[in-house]
């Protein structure tokens, strides 16, 4: 089972240093809003992660809430609910709140949380309708057919269905991360000095990526000349790279082709930029790895990432039929 962390800042948005600290936990950071994001931790011990969170460079004078669980929806509820629950552990810290749900408890935690505690997931109209129907928790919606729920709730019936199956119902996207290393070159330098600047820049870029366990497939080089000319190049690697020696060879090849052996203090500055990156130690989550057997416990279902269109239509329909009641009705 994959551990998920949900992080929320009470006011404002996260600064870069805090996000960099979170990347030290895992490179799989998924944004919900400017002040909210998920961190997919993979298979890791909960107690170990709690220690790591307490060691983070947390924001001063701001309240940060962390929710931890082995399901994305459970982590989200754990962080945001203000209601007590026997399976929810919450501790107040000097920077905010840390809440978690123990392993194997995600399913029952979601199912038995009071509906009024889920006001951040459901509209006030939907909550009022369900409570008027005598439904006080998600588990109690199982006694009503989907058709009946749809009659009462309209499109919100789909959200109830997703919540009931432990699936986070709203869109998320990977948090954009950009690495730029910039070097200004003094006017009285020679080619040997330039080689040293290149080496330092490549080492800094390599360290930035390695610290977050990331590699890049594409690197962009930009060089500004004293003549006002800007030269650009990009290198595409077959596998994600973060070794400074590889970056250095790329830069040397670029500059040698530019100057063709006749270098006369022409360079003003240069930069290395990475926009496309990925985790070195494993693939991104794939929906095909997440399908549960029918009737399987929710705790055995990993958190779903954002779903992109699959080119294999029949396969996509097969997977979506596990979650979509309307597709199930057609099968």
What do you see in this structure?
By secondary structure, this protein is of the alpha+beta class. Among the domains are: 179-274, DNA polymerase, Y-family, little finger domain (Dna Ligase, domain 1); 292-330, no CATH class. It has 11 helices and 12 strands. The chain has helices spanning 16-23, 46-54, 72-80, 106-112, 124-132, 146-153, 156-164, 191-211, 244-259, 313-320, 325-330; strands at 3-9, 29-33, 36-42, 64-69, 88-92, 96-101, 173-174, 179-184, 214-225, 230-241, 267-274, 277-279. The strands form 2 sheets. It has a 7-stranded mixed β-sheet. Strands 8, 9, 10, 11 and 12 form a 5-stranded antiparallel β-sheet that branches. The chain starts with a strand and ends with a helix.
Q: Any descriptors?
A:
12 strands; 7-stranded mixed sheet; Dna Ligase, domain 1; 331 residues; 11 helices; alpha+beta
Write the topology of this structure.
Layout: E1 3-9, H1 16-23, E2 29-33, E3 36-42, H2 46-54, E4 64-69, H3 72-80, E5 88-92, E6 96-101, H4 106-112, H5 124-132, H6 146-153, H7 156-164, E7 173-174, E8 179-184, H8 191-211, E9 214-225, E10 230-241, H9 244-259, E11 267-274, E12 277-279, H10 313-320, H11 325-330
Helix pairs in contact: 6-7, 8-9
What is the straight-line distance between the termini?
A: 29 Å
Major beta-sheet overview: 7 strands, mixed
CATH topology of the domain at 179-274: Dna Ligase, domain 1
Work out the number of β strands. 12
Q: What is the CATH superfamily classification of the domain at 179-274?
A: DNA polymerase, Y-family, little finger domain
Number of helices: 11
Succession of helices and strands:
EHEEHEHEEHHHHEEHEEHEEHH
CATH first level of the domain at 179-274: Alpha Beta
Relative helix content: 25-40%
Strand order of the biggest β-sheet: 5-6-4-1-3-2-7
The CATH architecture of the domain at 179-274 would be: 2-Layer Sandwich
- Based on CA inertia axes, which overall geometry fits? elongated
Give me the Rg, rounded.
25 Å
Any low-confidence stretches, pLDDT <50, length ≥5?
A: 282-310
Q: Approximately what portion of the residues adopt beta-strand conformation?
A: 15-25%
Name the average pLDDT. 77
